Structures are given as structure tokens and as C-alpha cells.
């Protein structure tokens, strides 16, 4: 049972990754991202998730340097963007991300999207970075089962994480069960479906019972489903509230009720059909 922001899951290579983290998608570089990352770390968050394409790695790096928490106590994730995929270009993209962040290493580096004809070479680059000790763990993002199966045919190292869109309207059960069997940790982006789920009647009913918000119930549901979650906010109060989910437990019946809200509905692109 996850009982605090410090609790971790152990990835298949032995690296410990926090169950709960802070995402910075669409958070502007400069004071907005610096202040929100600092607020998250101050509130006890250890895991920060960024990406090259978010264009805020510099600000994230500055917040890490100024937050007063030793680097080794934090877990930092970034991702290689689609235009940089391929072997050499991925190695270069990693160096660029490190330079922007001002860090010596990343805890987790992900392939952002499964770019056809490219992601296998990209993965070889991640394996090289990993074998060279430049990154603690490597993984993928937005990979369907067939992408994973295809990758695993040639991979020397199995991805440690698959970060995907995951929320009560998109429970990805087949993918989740595939990842569990393969010992690949599932991680949720857009866990609140960009706020759309906060109005859901069933979720609000459960929230009322515990004196919690709809967001807190959803984030708790993620953790009880063994899915890492990384909500984002730029408001300090919301950042603190999002993490206030360790003092209640959803019943099996409530978990099922939330699972049953699934509609296989996405807010982001389908990984089988994106053009960027």
C-alpha cells in the first residue's frame, strides 16, 4: 500500500521510482515552471517529469538547483522528441537535455512516441546510454501492445516504464495486463483527463464520502491500480492537494465502479495515428 509521497516501486532493474510525481507539460519555461517545480518539491514530491518538446528543461533544472534538496534524492524524467529519433540523433538529444537541465544524469529517459521505422534505433541509443551508466532507467511512452511486442523482438534491455494516457475513461486494461506480465511499469499521463473527469457524478459521490476532491479520488485510484501518476498544476494549493491522497483507501467496490467508467476515450492522439 502506498502511504506517502516518498513511496517507490522497484523497476525491473532494481531502480526505485516514486509512485507519485509532478508533470510539467504545458508549463511555461521561466518563473512559471521554476515556481511550480519548487512548490512541488517543497510539498514533498521527489519525482519531476519533463520532456524536450515541453521546452522547459532549463527552468526545471534551475528549480532543482535552487530547491535545497540533494539531486540524488530526486527522480528526474525527460523524453526524446520525435524529430530527434534515430540512433546518433537520440544520443545528441540526450546530451542536449542534460545540458539544458544542468544535470549529470537522468533517472529515467523515455521515447516520447513510437515513430514508425525509427523507434528501434532510438531504443538502441537508450540501451547504449543505459549500459554506459549515463541514465538510471529507460522506457517508452505512448506504446501500444504491438509496439512493445515489436520492440522486444530485438531489444537487449526491456523497457522499465511505459508512460501512457490513462484515466477512468481510458483504463487500458489489456495494455496494463501486458505490461504487468512483462514487468514493465505503467505510468499515467493526463490522469485527470485534462480536468474533464472532475465533474463525473460517480467520482464526486465517492469523493464526498471521504471528504476528498474528485481529483484526489482519481489519483488514489491510479495508485491502487499499481499505476504511477504525475498530475500537473501551476497552483501551489492544487499541487499540495493533489498529493493529499495517502490518508484514505478506496474499497474494492469503489475501484470497480471507477474502472467501469471506461469509454476507451482519449484526450491525446492515438499512438497508432499521430503525425508529429
UniProtKB/TrEMBL annotation:
The keyword DNA-binding does not apply. The keyword Secreted does not apply. CDD domains: AKR_AKR5G1-3. Residues 29-262 form the NADP-dependent oxidoreductase domain. It comes from the Bacteria. GO terms for molecular function: oxidoreductase activity, acting on the CH-OH group of donors, NAD or NADP as acceptor. Keywords: NADP, Oxidoreductase. Substrate binds at residue 112. Coiled coil: none annotated. It holds the Pfam family Aldo_ket_red. The record marks 79 as: Lowers pKa of active site Tyr. The active site is at 54 (proton donor). Belongs to the aldo/keto reductase family. This is Diketogulonate reductase-like aldo/keto reductase. The lineage of its organism: Bacteria, Bacillati, Bacillota, Bacilli, Bacillales.
Amino acid at each position: 500500500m502506498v502511504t506517502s509521497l516518498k513511496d517507490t516501486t522497484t523497476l525491473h532493474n532494481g531502480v526505485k521510482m516514486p509512485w507519485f510525481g509532478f508533470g510539467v507539460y504545458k508549463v511555461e519555461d521561466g518563473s512559471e515552471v521554476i515556481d511550480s517545480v519548487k512548490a512541488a518539491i517543497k510539498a514533498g514530491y521527489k519525482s519531476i517529469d519533463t520532456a524536450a518538446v515541453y521546452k522547459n528543461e532549463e527552468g526545471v533544472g534551475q528549480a532543482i538547483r535552487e530547491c535545497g534538496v540533494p539531486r540524488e534524492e530526486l527522480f528526474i524524467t525527460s523524453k526524446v522528441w520525435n524529430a530527434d529519433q534515430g540512433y546518433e540523433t537520440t544520443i545528441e538529444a540526450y546530451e542536449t537535455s542534460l545540458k539544458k537541465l544542468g544535470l549529470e544524469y537522468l533517472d529515467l529517459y523515455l521515447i516520447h512516441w513510437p515513430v514508425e521505422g525509427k523507434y528501434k534505433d532510438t531504443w538502441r541509443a537508450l540501451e547504449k546510454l543505459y549500459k554506459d551508466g549515463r541514465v538510471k532507467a529507460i522506457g517508452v511512452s505512448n506504446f501500444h501492445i504491438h509496439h512493445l511486442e515489436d520492440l522486444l523482438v530485438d531489444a537487449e534491455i526491456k523497457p522499465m516504464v511505459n508512460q501512457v494516457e490513462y484515466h477512468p475513461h481510458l483504463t487500458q486494461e489489456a495494455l496494463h495486463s501486458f505490461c504487468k506480465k512483462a514487468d514493465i511499469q505503467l505510468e499515467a499521463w493526463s490522469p485527470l483527463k485534462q480536468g474533464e473527469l472532475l465533474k463525473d457524478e460517480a467520482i464526486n459521490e465517492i469523493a464526498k464520502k471521504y471528504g476528498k476532491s474528485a481529483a484526489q479520488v482519481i489519483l488514489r485510484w491510479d495508485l491502487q491500480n499499481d499505476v504511477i501518476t504525475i498530475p500537473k498544476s501551476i497552483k501551489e494549493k492544487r499541487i499540495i492537494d493533489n498529493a493529499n491522497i495517502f490518508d484514505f483507501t478506496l474499497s474494492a467496490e469503489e475501484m470497480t465502479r471507477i474502472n467501469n467508467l471506461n469509454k476507451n476515450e482519449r484526450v491525446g492522439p492515438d499512438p497508432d495515428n499521430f503525425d508529429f
